[in-house]
Amino acid sequence: MTDIQDLSQKIKDQSSFATQLLKEIESTVIGQKAMIESILIGFLADGHVLLEGLPGLAKTTAVKAFSDAMSLHFKRIQFTPDLLPADLLGTTIYNAKESRFETRKGPLFSNLVLADEINRAPSKVQSALLEAMQEKTITIGDKTFDLEEPFLVLATQNPIEQEGTYPLPEAQVDRFLLKVKVSYPSKTDEMRILDLVSGNGLIKPDTVASKEDILNSRELVKQVYVDERVREYIVNLVFATRDPASVKRNDLVNYIEVGASPRASIGLAQAAKAHAFIQGRAYVTPEDIKNVAMEVLRHRLILSYEAEAEEVVVETVIQKILDTVEVP
């Protein structure tokens, strides 16, 4: 009990920076509170985030705002069909003056990498990015380099423009902790955006956090308590995506082609811990699981042709599972 109380106090003290950070970024990125919180969860849970939304919804602005507010080394990579792995990783060049080869590091050697329109690059580029995302290392020639922490890839993709795009490999999609669908702002928020743009323009956020804040917070997030019943709830949710009949959802059996992998269970626990941390709690509740479940699971389920023919979307399937699985 004393350990939980001590941890709870540490989390309350440390999580105050998260509140200040969210407030600072929301002053720049109007009407996208859910997206901003999801990116912060990605930072705290040490997981990459895929942002899917139409152009003009402040995805790039949000990522840049995070780098400014935390004074992180930031690089933006515009993915195109002619992109090469060396454009991301770097390459080895010959220095004739000194008669030796030198390594020129690419833009992936950063704390925060924005992979803009990630599905526009071919598979060999995606493979190069995969090592950095999973192993936190980059291999150039015969040398392997460790990436500096924190390291986070925030990728964007357009959901409707399919011409000239390459579907992301399932192995890479599964490496993203969260897939966030970015929607339009409300009328009130759009009025605020117009007021800002017609005035002095968008506000650049002040630096209110540091790398150390993120790294220290990650250590506390790892210690957030997850009760055995909550862990069972996580596993039950994931198993229900593989075998809906086990939770008496026979109506979903023909809709799910492939259920979520064990990485989904790990992701649910990590993201729920980060969500609890932001709330200033030292323990995870079922509500934390429900809050992050959609973004952790939506890219890990593959629906059948029957679901597609009947225009059933993955969010509907996940919501039915959340409504059915017993909450502890």
The helix-and-strand class reads alpha/beta
Number of domains: 2
Q: What's the CATH C level of the largest domain? A: Alpha Beta
Alpha carbon gap, first and last residue: 21 Å
Rg over C-alpha atoms, rounded to the nearest angstrom: 21 Å
Helix content: 40-55%
The CATH topology name of the largest domain reads Rossmann fold
pLDDT < 50 runs, ≥5 residues: none
> Can you name the CATH architecture of the largest domain?
3-Layer(aba) Sandwich
State mean pLDDT (0 to 100 scale): 86
Task: Give me the number of helical elements.
Answer: 14
Order of helices and strands: HHHEHEHEEEHEEEHEHHHEHHEHH
Q: What is the number of beta strands?
A: 11
Strand order of the largest sheet: 2-5-8-1-9
Beta content: 15-25%
* Major sheet description: 5 strands, parallel
Shape: globular
Layout of helices and strands, plus pairs?
Layout: H1 2-14, H2 16-26, H3 33-45, E1 48-52, H4 59-70, E2 74-78, H5 85-89, E3 90-95, E4 100-105, E5 112-116, H6 123-135, E6 137-140, E7 143-146, E8 152-157, H7 170-173, E9 176-181, H8 187-198, H9 211-223, H10 228-242, E10 256-258, H11 262-278, H12 286-297, E11 302-303, H13 305-309, H14 314-324
Parallel strand pairs: 1-8, 1-9, 2-5, 5-8
Antiparallel strand pairs: 3-4, 6-7, 10-11
Helix pairs in contact: 1-9, 2-3, 3-11, 9-11, 10-11, 11-12, 12-14
